[in-house]
## 1
Amino acid sequence: QDSEKAKTFVQAFLKRSMPKMKDEAIQDMLTRKAVVLEHYPKKKAKQKRKKTKGFTAKQRRELRLFEIEPEQQRYAIFLPLHELWKQYIRDLCHGLKPDAQPHVIQGKLLKADLHGAIVTVTKSKCPSYVGITGIILQEFKHVFKIITKEDKLKVVPKLNNVFSVELDGFISYIYGSKFLLRASERSAKKFKLKGTIDL
């Protein structure tokens, strides 16, 4: 009896839902095909990925993460780093050959990592900086930290200073005022071929 009620209900429901369909077609649908009613599943809420939080700038300063300990401030310790840097630049520039085009090498050096390079301050608005030579240990947005042969750690601002880098007889000049970027940002920056040359 219940099955008969169900059958009557389904037929009546289909007739109401599809008034244009003939009784024979409805009957055919019931006997040959399954009736699929539309179902809209609930959208699952997207789980937000938890970002791994690093240290803040204040925490890094408090932990002194970027400070070089006094016992580590020795020029000789960083000479192997300089040798690695020289090999890195040679590989980057496919060997610094005498016939290499200076502007091509210059363009690559602008985006290269300078940690380990020996630089000299050649010009400066502050005369006391001129002549400082050493290995770059750290590069920040506004300053270079350089270790000299006298085992002294110097913090030299980029602004208003010109630095020279020499490798295999090729000398390149870095105008610090145009170099006010972090090393990671500089690698993605497009430098203009011609610019004003000033301190």
Note: The domain at 73-188 is CATH 2.30.30.210 (SH3 type barrels.).
## 2
Amino acid sequence: ILLGSCLHPAAAFPKGCYPSEEEGLKTFRCSNAQLTEVPRDIPNDTNKLYLDFNQIPFLPRDAFRDLPLLLELDLSHNAIARIETGAFQGLAEHLHSLDLSSNRLVSVSKDAFSNLKAKVNLSHNPWLCDCRLQELIRAVELVAESSGGIVCDSSAQEEHVGKAFLQVIADTDLCNVYKKTTDIAMLVTMFGWFAMVISYLVYYVRQNQEDARRHLEYLKSLPSKQRRSEESSTISTVV
């Protein structure tokens, strides 16, 4: 009976996943298990969860909602390109280590890590270095030795590509650059509309002047009596 009760929960685990106990902490390992999503039915008393070396593409909202005692979460070496806001909801109380290194993260909102106190490893991802990444880096606590691995894979400023992100933001405030660029774009747009309005007014005035000139030439070509009548009519119309 005891053996059956022990084996029954294990039967629900994905292939390659198994529970264990390490240093007195309840651990659930799914390393290199060819997973394409965060598995369900993880024991809710798990303290350490290893999902590294899989093919998980994204983290949905409430992905770890039922793991209130989780202390360490390893998601390194996956294919994670998107993290929904609320993916780590419920982990803020206990989680102290989150490894997202060696994934496919390009841009992530800081809101996805809202209220997390864990030290985060974001190294070795193809980051787009912009204001959004700057806000994210300032919102989380990085694992100290991982900061040099956050490198600009792409950037609006070509000179930043290939540089460590912390080096870039030490010299440049990317959020101020973005704000200035936005302000300049708005000014250019407003100037463009203003120029179009002025151009139309100039065209309209010149067209009216040309029409008036042609009409006067026409009046001059008429016999004097008819011309006076036409001139009177034109003056009345103008008034």
Note: The helical segments are 2-11, 131-139, 165-171, 174-220, 224-238.
